[in-house]
Amino acid sequence: MLKTYIDKLSGLKMTIISGLFLLGSFVLMITKTRTSFDPAWISVLISGLPLVYYAVVRLIFQRSISSPLLISIAMAAAIITGELFAAGEVAFIMAAGGLLEEYTTERAQKGISKLMSLAPQQGRRINGAIEEIIPAGQIQKGDIIRVFPGETIPVDGEIISGETSADQSVMTGESLPVDKMIGDSVFSGTMNLYGSVDVRALHVGKDSSLQKMIDLVKEAENKKAPTQRIVDKWASWLVPAALLIAVITYLATGEVVRAVTVLVVFCPCALTLATPTSIAAAIGQAAKHGVLIKSGEALEKMGKTDFIAFDKTGTLTQGKLEVSDIISFDAEIPPEELLALVCAAEIRSEHPLAKAVAAYAKINCIEIPKADNFKMAAGMGVQSNVSGSVILCGNRLYFKENGILLNDNTEKELKRLQKHGKASILAAKDGSCIGVIALSDLLRENIKSIVAGLEQINAEVALLTGDNRQAAEYFAQNAGIKNIYSELLPADKAAIIRRLQSEGKKVCMTGDGVNDAPSLKTADVGIAMGNIGSDMAIEAADIALMNDNIANILYIKKLSNAAITSIKQNITLSMLINFAAIGLSVYGLLNPVTGALVHNLGSVIVVLNAARLYDRKVMVGF
Questions:
Q1: Residues 566, 612: contact at Cβ < 8 Å?
Q2: Active site (catalytic) residues
Q3: How many helices (H) and strands (E) does the chain have?
Q4: Which residues contact 356 (CB under 8 A, 6 or more apart)?
Q5: What φ, ψ does residue 220 adopt, rounded to 5°?
Q6: Which of 11, 32, 384, 537 is buried most, with the most CB atoms less than 10 Å from its CB?
Q7: What is 140-203's CATH number?
């Protein structure tokens, strides 16, 4: 009951009323008009009671000496000495500062609020000929959901019927619609723009991409940064220090007004606001761009990292195989024909390499001849009759078992492809090797520029991968990475990170798979590729890139550096203003009224400086 009343007094409407009464008191004071009742009393009651309430609650129930306690003491001292306007001024400006902080925090959370508002409320479930509208929470994995144009997709799933374009900006940051067809994935919270599609639900409720984003952001609100904890400790000893200096000032000068002014200007409000406002603004800035920072501690640690390690597959690379080389060993068979023969032979295979070849042929509009008598040797290769010829596709062992010899030129080509980290499909026609098709996991765009950008801001970059040394060196060279650690098991990655930490390095690890979870947890800061990354990797990480934009690594580093700078600026400004005001108060150059103005000016400066982070243009700009 009392808490409800106090909250109402702290609101915007009551604070405005408090300010109006304080203004009336100021007018009476400068016009030297005497009245039986000073309007400043209303300001003290409206804006001062919440401060007294929180001071008593924290002192009794939390056993902590807080800044509201010091402010309450300052108000009481001002009232006792007849400085009623100063007491009302301190109370009002603190209330106004609290509203300004709340506004800054709310503004920083706009990106988060947008995500939460996009959580779908219902879906259209299809069960045979029956179509029903049900709450989104009742949709089960495996349900078929029909989505019409203009509707929000309520689940993560796979399109099984229809074609459309989807606005995925909330998840991926892409400004243009993405075309979707049968077999393509769609995300909860994204917008179906054009066609009607049927979607098989794969991830629903708490498992959906949108809900994971919301949950991760909520975690950030409950964790403090190390600097914030330090500030909390400072606030606890500032109260006795203020009382001591006020007493000494009174004993030395014999002037109560000076002692009261010391109490007024000593309040550590700006210092207390220094870290949380910067952290809130930075986390909100990151959320706007699909970067979810789980805590202020993670943000602060990221600002101190000087060694950034990357996993390869799915992190530096796109995580999917694509045809990279089509090499014919027969002058009469051009590359396009070789691709058509291999695709025809492999068309019924479920192997990932076969699917990648078929997808490549489809994209390039390659005409595929008919094939029959399909045979498959699991893990080795396939055989089919294509246009009257026997076509074999597979690995060295499969060719050896079928008596197909490889000449020196073919062996040399296979070794070159292996050195470049590529998978190979050998092709034979009527018992003779006619060529090879290579597939590669391609590097993400602009990765070399990203690595160079990190090095320019004094961050050392390394590759930690389970690949063989030759493949690791090939990818690292193309990415511009000089430090290479290859052929690593998950435990090996974690061990290397611990070794680097023992050498004084502050390590950030970026990965996407289950095998990256130990190293993500071991590193000072773990960053997970949130879209394609495994649930375990996301849970283990401190930061998640929900749009899988690797360029955001550089963005996070710059934003974290900016946040650290903002925090240091805020602490320095607040301390300088407080010390200067204390000195001026001791020498009698400030009175309780002017002292309150100077002191609270520090709080306003700190909050406004932190708010700049939310709109800061630190995007990488690739």
A1: yes
A2: 311
A3: 24, 22
A4: 320, 321, 322, 323, 439
A5: -65, -30
A6: 537
A7: 2.70.150.10
Flag the least confident range among 55-69, 324-338, 502-516, 570-584: 55-69
Give φ, ψ of 520 to 5 degrees.
-65, -40
* Per-residue pLDDT tens digits for 187-224: 888 888 877 899 999 988 777 777 766 665 555 444 44
CA dist 227 and 66 (Å) reads 17
Closest CA relative to residue 587, chosen from 595, 597, 577: 595
516-548 pLDDT, tens digit each:
777 888 888 988 886 655 565 566 678 888 777
HSE (side-chain half, CA atoms, 13 Å) at 428? 24
176 and 166 Cβ atoms separated by less than 8 Å: no
Residue-wise burial string across 358-376, b where 16 or more C-beta atoms lie within 10 A, e elsewhere: bebbeeeebebbebeeeeb
Identify any residues that bridge with 199 across adjacent strands, giving them in sequence order: 145, 159
The DSSP code sequence of 573-606 is HHHHHHHHHHHHHHTTS--HHHHHHHHHHHHHHH
Could you read off the pLDDT of 561-593 as tens digits, one per residue? 888 888 888 888 888 888 888 888 888 888 887
**Model confidence, pTM:** 0.61
Mean pLDDT of the chain: 81
Q: Using CA atoms, how far apart are residues 82 and 585, in angstroms rounded to an integer?
A: 17
What is the homologous superfamily of the domain 318-442 according to CATH?
Answer: Calcium-transporting ATPase, cytoplasmic domain N (3.40.1110.10)
Separation CA 28–CA 16 (nearest Å) = 19
Q: How confident is the model at residue 101 (pLDDT cuts 50, 70, 90)?
A: low
Collapsed DSSP state (helix, strand, coil) of residue 209 = helix
Under DSSP, the state recorded for 316 is I
* For residues 102-117, average pLDDT: 55
